[in-house]
Write a structure and sequence with these properties.
Length: 209
């Protein structure tokens, strides 16, 4: 007697194989060149894995491949476009003071000069900014800024350790820091204050003078 096949049982016991995706990129710029199932790029040297959700959005044209780059620092996919700051990171992060951190390779460097009542914002040389990198990182290997220049970074100046008491909010475009610094003047602040932001870059430092 012919055995009947229960299709539901068969599907449970024989799940469809998971498709793994990869993006091939230009090794100089990090620009994405093509994307698809990993097995299609077995002979490619410069490629990174991409999760299926992002890969399918790119393949279906909902994210442009021309907006896809590799972040060489952690070898991950970054998508460049004008970003609403609340979509980048919904968590407020306190900018750490230079005296309390061992980070010597920040992305954004902020200097508050109390005597002049100014706050200067700089990108480091690595991102075509004006803040010099430490000697051990010289010569500097320039990296592409992965966010569109029109992306706005909001900085909240608050009561010390209390982001709920706001003194001032500053808005800085990434393009304001390309090849130049941005200085906010007439900024009189208490002896102790905190600076918070929703991160666009990974590492921020503030120095008090």
């Amino acid at each position: 007697m012919e055995e009947e096949l229960n299709i539901d049982t068969w599907l449970i016991n024989n799940p469809a194989p998971t498709v793994e995706y990869a993006m091939v990129y230009d090794p100089e710029s990090g620009q994405g060149l093509s994307i698809g199932p990993s097995h299609a790029f077995e002979s490619e040297k410069y490629k990174i894995p991409v999760d299926s959700e992002k890969a399918e959005l790119i393949i279906n044209g909902k994210i442009r491949l021309s907006s896809c780059f590799v972040d060489f620092r952690n070898n991950s996919l970054e998508i460049t476009e004008v970003k609403n700051i609340f979509k980048i990171d919904d968590v407020l992060h306190r900018v750490i003071s230079k005296q309390w951190t061992e980070i010597d390779r920040p992305d954004i460097y902020i200097t508050y000069d109390r005597s002049k009542c100014t706050m200067k914002f700089e990108l480091t040389e690595e991102f075509n900014g004006t803040k010099k990198m430490p000697k051990k990182y010289q010569p500097v290997s320039k990296r592409k800024v992965l966010w569109d220049g029109e992306t706005v970074m909001n900085f909240l100046i608050t009561e010390y350790n209390d982001p709920n008491i706001l003194y001032s909010m500053l808005a800085i475009k990434i393009s304001d820091l390309s090849g130049k610094s941005k200085t906010i003047k007439n900024l009189e602040l208490p002896d102790k204050f905190s600076l918070y932001t929703r991160r666009v870059f990974k590492n921020y430092i503030i120095e008090h003078k």
